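Q: Convert this sequence to structure tokens.
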Amino acid sequence: MYRIPAAFLCCLTLAGCGTSMQRPASGDTTPTQLVEAVQDEMAVAVETARINAWFDERYEEQVAFSPIQQTILGRKTDNDKIDDVSIEAQDRQLAWQRASVAEMRSTFDYDLLTPEAQTSYDVWAYQLEQAEAALPFRLNAYVFDQMSAIHTFFPQLLIAFHVVDDGSDMDAYIARIGESGRAIRQLIELSRLGAENGVRPPRFAFDFVIDEATKIISGAPFDDSGEDSALWADAQAKIAGLRDSGDIDQTRATAMLAAARSALVGPFQAAYEELIAWQEEDKVNAPEETRGVDALPNGAAYYEERLANQTTTELTADEIHDIGLSEVARLRSELLAIKDEVGFTGDLPSFFAELRDNKDDRRYYYPDTDEGRQAYIDDATAAIDKIKAELPNYFGILPKAGLEVRRVEAFREQPGAAQHYFPGTPDGSRAGVYYAHLSDMDAMPKRELEVIAYHEGLPGHHMQISIAQELTSVPTFRTQAGFTAYSEGWGLYSEWLAVEMQDTYQDPYSRFGRLGSEIWRAIRLVVDTGLHSKGWSEEEAVQYFLANSAVTEGQARSEIRRYMVLPGQATSYKIGMLKIQALRRKAEAALGDAFDIRAFHDTVLGGGALPLTVLESRVDRWIASVRRLVS
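A:
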């Protein structure tokens, strides 16, 4: 069967060079009509070029608000600063966002834009709509908790993202140590405002924050324990590197060490001590019994906004809950089939226990040693390398950026916590990183290694985000846009897509791990809505998790506590996956033999992250373009 080249199919309507109208066939038109058609196309090209240039100008204004984002992007502008996170700064950014959308609407003719430019217009306006919808609830969000963990991000920013190539970079690094203290104090003020309005995270979150903040200011130069703190060790190493390279002399190195030490034991340590004191003070006011956000002031409306924000749909909590129940039932039947395949004679809960509790069985777990930790990293890297060879069969667009598998830094590592991904820089100077929590290898079953590697690495987050950052056919803001249902939906879809590829999930336990990962996300639909809209207790949610998956009680509780502090976020994975699967089925049915899996994936990935409604419109346009081509 002839397969039309994927890249060609995708570029017909989606590469930003097409127009929103079709030129009439020459045999049916007069010369005047042809001239008018060409003029129309030229008008579209001019208006599209104008708005794309405008988007790039506005994006630079937007990035200027955030020195942190500039660093994440690999830039060195404002690298001696940390973001202003005060209420006043939030107001200034929202005012700018409102003004930019008003200017866009008054300056550009939507009907004279290409479909891709119309998508950019829609996304720019959608981002403001999300910000406006969230505004009434900005004091409902928890400032300090174990998941968003902003207090641990500042050391991570300096250690992992702040590049030091010369003395001026190190001076900026030292300035940022002090700036981090200022930002922590602003965040404490936001946390106090929330508490005054009756909004506090569950009590367990206070313990996490106190423990993590204490770790950050433990060791030299904060105490005389005999060990260096992570930040002090990093600062010394970077200064030594500059000295050894000849960029600075010993005198300047000594002065830098003194300045770094002074910043750490001065404003930085004082801010973290203030954070610890505030958390200890306010912890007693948090309810002993964990409750969903619907129990907080304006909580029910806040949860509705969170669901809309995270899923980019209008699905209600009840609808999401019912979808979850249906998916859990479907996936349980598939898990039962694998249980029978491996010859296990007990029921499904007993098989869960078999896989969960036999920690010394090397079929199921790595040893809880440094050798076991390295074996996990090596095997995850090998799985990613193996599937990489399959990608050209499923994608026309491939990422250029590199990928590393790395253990989470000790100061923020949590036993059994979820793996996660940090993107590289758009220019490729910093690779993307798949981080794994490896302090407790008994929480890292072998059956889940493959599926997590595909989700976080290839063809999941690393591929999707890297392709987005490398796009040249859309304005820069589209390459950096983030919509959780799209990105996490793609990650979960990638786990499922890998089933179609050669040499993946080769043993039944890995296939069980894949299904276990999917039912995990289905469970989230049930328990997130249960916790925040149906009055479920933490214990009810934990027990539901344990009844339907092979996770340990510690893992289940860690997950439930994640959902407690990030309402709605966990629903985005399965809702996004289901939408992408539905769009693929729609395209397959509409196109028949003309369906090309590579072109479909390029259509989904080739415009950057999008709200699900906008993604559906994009796929519909691609389907229509292929139909025109083959008709």
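Residues 368 and 441 are 5 Å apart (CA to CA).
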